[in-house]
Specification:
With 152 residues, the protein is mostly helical. It contains 6 helices and no strands. The termini are far apart. Pfam families: DUF29.
Length: 152
């Protein structure tokens, strides 16, 4: 390991913001020989994982609230407004991520069943309803779930 690499790794570990600022300057000025490439690659990979995690989480919570709206009758009157606000919020957050990264739509489609299952699990924990009364498979499509004009 060279002295330069030790300093950059140390800077990354000691002051992330300073490392980030320095890396941006190096990229902008074309100083590619001194860039801490290992940590830069790790950070870029992390960005993609973060977006996928966020969009999966929003989808799961959207499904949870769509199920609340459809099946949790005893709480509907008291909670309806909050559920509707949450449904709108999760749709907006998903839409924002899809606007900046349209390829995440394929990721959503690939994770549709998994996130429905997770949302169903959260819903059942919150509602304490009989699991047999809630479909194990989604009763709507991804497009329908994301459609701001659709409710179950």
């Amino acid at each position: 390991m060279t002295m330069t690499t030790e300093i950059k790794i140390s800077l990354y570990e000691q002051d992330y913001q300073l490392w980030l600022d320095q890396t941006l300057v190096q990229l902008r000025t074309g100083d590619f020989n001194n860039i801490d490439l290992e940590n830069l690659i790790e950070e870029v990979e992390s960005l993609g994982k973060s977006d996928k995690h966020a969009i999966s989480s929003y989808l799961m919570r959207l499904f949870e609230h769509l199920l609340k709206l459809k099946y949790w009758e005893s709480e509907r009157e008291m909670c309806l407004r909050g559920w509707l606000v949450e449904i709108a919020n999760f749709r907006i957050e998903i839409e924002k991520r899809l606007e900046t990264s349209p390829s995440l739509k394929t990721f959503l489609q690939d994770n549709f069943a998994k996130q429905y299952k997770n949302g169903r699990k959260l819903f059942l924990q919150a509602s304490n309803l009989d699991p047999r009364s809630i479909p194990e498979q989604p009763c709507f499509t991804l497009d329908r779930a994301l459609d701001e004009n659709w409710l179950p």
